[in-house]
Amino acid sequence: MENAWLIPLFPLVSFLFLLLFGKRLKEASAFVGILATLASLVYSILVLLERLESPTHKAEAVWLTIGNLELTAGFEVNQLNALMLVIVSLVSFLVHTYSKGYMHGDERFPVFYAYLGLFTFAMLGLVISPNLLQTYIFWELVGVGSFLLIGFYFYKESAKAAAKKAFIMTRIGDVGLLIGMILLFWQTGSFEYDEIFAAVEEGAISGTMITLTAILIFIGAVGKSGQFPLHTWLPDAMEGPTPVSALIHAATMVAAGVYLVASLFPLFNASETAMLTVAIIGAFTAIFAASIGLVQNDIKRVLAYSTVSQLGYMMLALGSAGYVAGVFHLMTHAFFKALLFLAAGSVIHAVHTQDIEKMGGLWKKLTFTGPLFLIGTLAISGVPLFSGFFSKDEILIAAWAHGNYGLFWLAVIAAFFTAFYMFRLFFMVFTGEARSEMKNVHESPSVMTLPMLVLAVLAVVAGYVNTPWFGAFLGDWLVEGNEALGHGHIAGPGWIMIVATAVSLLGILLAWMMYSKNSISRDWLSSRAPIAYGVVKNKYYIDEIYNQSVVFATKAISLFLRFIELFVVEGLVKLTTATVQALGKTGAKIQNGQVQTYGTIAFVGLAVLMVIYALTGGYL
Amino acid sequence: MDLETLLSFDWGTMTPEFIILGFIAILSVADLFMPKHVDRKILGWVGFAGVVLALASLVSLIGTDTTSILYDTFRLDSFAIAFKLILLLGAALVMLLAIDYKHNDGLEDNKGEFFYLFLSAVLGTMFMASSGDLITLFVGLELLSIPSYILAGMRKRNMKSNESAMKYVLNGGISSAITLFGMSYVFGIAGTTNLKGIATVFGGLTDPQHIYILGLAFFMIFVGLSFKLASAPFHMWAPDVYEGAPTPVTAFLGAVSKTAGFVIILRILLSIFGYVPVAQEDGQPIPLLFAMQDYIAFLAGATMIIGNVIALRQRNIKRLFAYSSIAHAGYILVALTAMSFITFDAIWFYLLAYVLMNLGAFAIIQVITMKNGSEDISHFAGLYRRSPLLAVGMGIFILSLAGIPGTAGFIGKLNIFMGALMVDQAHYVLVSIMIATTVVSYFYYFGIMTQMFFRPASSEEKIQLPMGTLVVILVTAVGTILFGIMPNLAIDFLHTNFNQFMDFMR
Amino acid sequence: MTLTGEFFAFMSLALVAVIGGVLLLNLTKVVHMVVALVFTFVSIAGIYVLLSAEFLAVVQVMIYSGAITIMMLFGIMLTRHHGDEAEPKGGTLRRLFLLVGVLGFGAAVYFGIYDLDFEAVPNTLHENNTEQIGISLFSHYIIPFELTSVILLAALVGAIVLARRDDEKEGDQE
Amino acid sequence: MSSVPVSAYLALALILFCIGLYGALTKKNTVIVLISIELMLNAVNINLVTFSKYGANPSITGQVFALFSIAVAAAEVAVGLAILISLYRNRRSVNIDEVNQLKN
Amino acid sequence: MEFNYFLSLLVFSPLLGILLLAFMPKTNESGIKMLGVLATLPSLVLALLAYFSYRGGSDLANFSEKFRWIQFGGQGAEQSGMFTVNYELGIDGFGLVMVVLTAVIATLAAIASFHIKKEWKGYYMLFLLLEIGMLGVFTAQNLILFFLFFEITLIPMFFLIGKWGYYEKEKAAYSFLIYNGLGSAVLLIVIMVLFSRTGTSNIDMLRVILNTENAPMFAPISESLKMGLLVALLVAFGVKLPIFPLHSWMLRVHVEAPPSIVMIHSGILLKIGAFGLIRFGMGIFPEQFADLAVLLAVLGVINLLYGAFLAFIQTDFKMVLAYSSISHMGIVLIGLGALNEAGIQGAIFQVVSHGLISALLFFLVGVLYERTHTTTLANLGGMAKGMPLASGFLLAGAMASLGLPGMSGFVSEFMAFLGLFEEMPVLAAVGALGIIMTAVYLLRAVLAITYGKAEREFVGVSDIRSFEWAPVLVLIGLIVLIGVYPAVLSEPLQATLETILMGIGG
Fold it and tell me: Which residues cross the membrane (chain C) (predicted)?
């Protein structure tokens, strides 16, 4: 555990190595990446196992001295970190493996792996950071990794736009985080988590300040985790290669926001307002994104909105003091969403389109991918016995137990939506008529299916580490030794589980009726409420609103400033030079070549001086 | 006065003047008897030798005690030596330029006359530096002026030259009259023309009416003499005259004659008006000169502004340098305004630097204008390609004129600033004007740079440098840089040998 | 101020001098102007006599009324004239400007001198005036005197150089 | 002692000086301009001679000064005329306001 | 004592190159280029030597050297120890860092200058002169020497821009000259006021004299005068930095000058403004500086946002970078305005970091222009296809510029904001908007060049090659080094910071 800092270094080495020699290695680059992440994975598991027994380990060294302030860098292995290490390195390893098949034949194959390495390094670094500053550093680095990978197909204008958008939108959140972090620093004198918590506990910070900083930091999380209103980049981020979506925009990076809030849970918990904000934003995002997901036709976008929605769930959990529930869902979500994306990737790989309207009847052709996809779908829909069921249930209980009844019902509806759109997706892709143009559809190679298989297993079993029936092992472990995180298991009314099961089954049923059985017309909603349908279909016009307001305002300010630049700044300069020139012109004009003028001016000058002297300095 | 008394004076101290006088005689006689077709260039070299000889003898006089001959009508004090050094140095350089000056419009027939008229003007400047009597000063001034009028008009067939001489003589006459009018009042109130005597009388003045009249006299003398400085308000002749006069004469007017103007103004102002007590409100009288500071400052400011601003519009290189020389007169007036304990240092050093850089620049201007027969600034285009030496040389002079560090011009300005800022009532406004106008001057100075270095040449023809001009350029360039990097050579020389001009009034 | 002979003499001389000056300004023919000025010069000589400067008075008559005036007349004759001295055109503003300047100047100076008076000191200027000047000039002021000779030499040479007609071609009009 | 006050002489000089100046700066004919300058110098001489007799410390110096001034003035006139002739030869005019080739 | 003449050697070693170049035949292109680069190496080696020996524990005071240079005002002044200007060089931690930065960037820019197409000889001679000036600025121990070097940078820049620049080079050169001329004019006034009134120009002495009650001075300096001087300093260095609204010259320079020169200009010359503000403004007038802190911070935020918003709508990449420089200099001001340890250290970090980053970016601009002959965003696109390496580096540079952690830009930005948030949180929050805008405009511009559809005509262009690797790798390496291990920079600075903060605190 003392050497846990090595974990992020493996991918870093892979990144640097591939930068230097990638060109020569060609597709062999994959092995470098896979090997590096495998090393990380193995080590992470060792660390996790060790952490199960022993207490938190933390090591730091001075990074930067500012006068007598010393900022440190180091690493910490606590329960959350150890868990995250495993999740991240596992998913990363699987995605590395998967990509070898998926990216086969791409001319920038080594670059892809290099980027993946960079991202994995940053993400692993992020999860073992012992302080906010370091968190922020890696926070930004994962952003870059994400940016690079979204824009991997740089020649596509849409990829370019998406990458830019992702970077800037998250950057907005990051500034919030930065401000919050710095304010917190001046309040507590430290970036260290434990010192901050200590200060909070002692009441060294005023309540308002806690609320303010917590909300500012939450803005960072909103940006990163694609929460409303900074969610728009995440669906666009699907421009990146699908394995990237699985790794970054489903399992790990987008969960970083949740991770951040979880890491700072004691701070948030100290402010009712902050908690409520987190919960409301979470719940709203959950239902909001789910509703958009209902009508999307791009396989990856559906999954993306689903991700946004699920992240909202996690936020809701944290905001409802359900620390364990949030983290638990983070974990299960990582597995089943990664699985779904990889499976989707496998589908895209097979049919070369992302439009689900153009798919159908793939169940028979993709004999392997199909069932795996179904497992993922079941898990996310909260069908009992799958992992999603347990974690979602925890969240609902937490929300109810915290007294956020309104939010609880929102979450329930969102669960219904989730089940519906996921199965809508499943049915449209795998059932129904096989399209005629779908020739040459074949199953992906095993290098792609095996990772999916691993994830599928996890998607099924991961839930059992924390269940009401077999003991809340995970929860107890997570909160062990830290009361500020709340209880390992929150007991809730038994009916909640039934409601949850009911809505998910209802959703599946509805989807089956509309998209498989066709007993309800697919246009049922769009024909009855075209306006509402249009609004949802267009993602509530959020992008357009942003374009019209923020982007427009920025441009307007810029143009206004250019006006100032041209007319005020430059104008003043021009005025000055013009004045000097005019003076010169006048002077030259007076110099008219008439010698008597010269004499006159000289003499009158003398006379003026003398008269002034006589009037002022003279005697009498 | 018998022979004994006559011989009792230390005539040796007048050696430099006698040498110049002797050479005037030699040249005039030689010119008279030389056959007409013989090139008079040789006379130029003789004249140059004379100036150098005079310079040498002047150098040997450094360190002699203050001597006064005939009631101060001639006096050799450290002030005189220090400034005569500059004057003779300038004169020697101008002489070299004049030797190489060739222009086919009337001057060539009278080259012999040109040289000894020039020497007489130099003689005049020397007496202006070296006298303690109003009459000698006035006569010295006229001895400078009258040959200058003639020299300006010596390109007889060139209308511009005629016009220039005409303008010069008319303005000069008026300025002389005004100066003299002022001097007559000074004489009237003092009853003597001896500067020390005047100072003694003035020191005891109490009658406010007399002081008032002296104030008027101050203005008349100052404005009258500002003609020689080409400073406001008597500056307007300068561009016309500089443009029309033969280039060596322009160089002479711009450098040597201006120096002489400062010399006489310092001499008269300090020894006369520095002693007139002006009662202040607090009862503590201050010298009239200090009471007049605001006026001088105003004129200095006006001079700097006028010179630099109008120079922006010039296309004729000589005219441009005329305006630039007006501006430089303004800079030096700033030092005069300040009247700090380093005013002498500042003015001396600045004049030294100014003579070097200005004459260097004129040497190059002469080469270029002679080559092209026109004085338009565009003939400098591509000079860097045609003659890198000339271009770099001109670059150095221009940088120095613009007051860029590393050149003598900068140290000169530094001295002036110091003086103006170290006094209790520091002249912030004046210094600001000076610096602002300096920046304005970058426009036209660097305009020449632009021509020389950036613009393509109209012809690729190389430029041949005559010997004398080459010497001038080298000497001035080396001096400009040397005194810019190691100004202590000059400043220490000044202080070790001249002891702060303590003997100014002794 | 008593009405003495000296006073009358001064007044009449001064009047003539000023009238001469005013005529210089107002006459239209160049020659007339010069002649008017001769009167001024001569009356100034008279004033010198009043001021015990007999030698100067003689010099004044000889040089100004004589030499310089004659020289001027020569100058006028040597250069062709377009008839009368017409008023220069367009310079009205300048003249007005100048007039104000001259008046200001005059006022400022007059303000200083109108009641200027010095303690009367007896002097012997009128005795052997020429001798006194001679002694002063050749002992005290020998250096400026010699310098003046250089000036005159320079002026002489210069005048010849400039005024001499070139035998070769006539002025190249630039 | 004197029935004519010093100030009268000085005032006369002042008036003549002003007249000379005005003439020098307004007259069109260059000869007249030159002669006006002479008038100014004459005014100065009156001053000098007056002070020589009635000044603070009467002495012959004032007259000597005046003498120098006359000598110089003569030289100046000579040169001025010579320049005028030289100019006239090229330009065929003695009008001062036509001498304006050099300007700006 | 083994370090005698060390700094002189460091500063003036390029002179050797100039002399050797003077004897090179004009046409020997590769020889001149090689020599030009080689001539920058001694300084680099010496600078690194100094850095490592300092890190190795040797005292920077050992490097100081001092000779009597100019003595103004004669013996009297000399005895009282006043008005002596020494030739004195020395470095503190800050100076050392700047010297190393200068030496590094100069060498890299010399390599980048291989792209220069004509008249290499003159180019490299001026270039080396410029390097002398820059090195001198950071080592000068008195204000007059500082000013001298400061101006020495001005003149070569004028020529380098005016001769080797792009389309409107002369206009840009003039703009540069006049603005900087004005700036240095104001600076000169400040320097001269200090020198004239205290009698010394040594920076440390001034620090002591001005902050001690009743310290001996030649003439008094009132509190309001001090304030005035500081404001003047702010203007003077504000032109250089540049501070809004004194920035318009710098845009032209960035656009018109050759990229290798912009590397120097943006990398070092702009930083002289910050250096001066910290060294003189804070050092000599700590109390007044504290009074102005709010103003500075506000100006900083204005700069930051103004630059960022305008960079957002530029159509030319060089303009984007130019405005980006303005924006980034705002961070320096923010740090200074914070006036605490974090802020000042942030400002200094930003100085160094932006120096490296902008050098990198402009080098890449040069590489790009070399191949495409355009920098207009609309004409470019998809360069990542043809030149993936250059595009990658460009992106890396942009990332560094927008403050990506792990690169130097983040450290400085972070510290500056850390500092400001302690003092003025609201203002800082407004300023933080700039962080977003930086990302917006940089990505917009860089992605427009590198991403998107490849312009067909640029598909065949070659990528980074041969000598181009050196600047890119060194700069990226340094940027990352500082970003990852800021101690390389912060440790040498500690002593300087303590001195400065002591002044402010006391």
Answer: 6-27, 34-51, 57-76, 96-114, 141-163
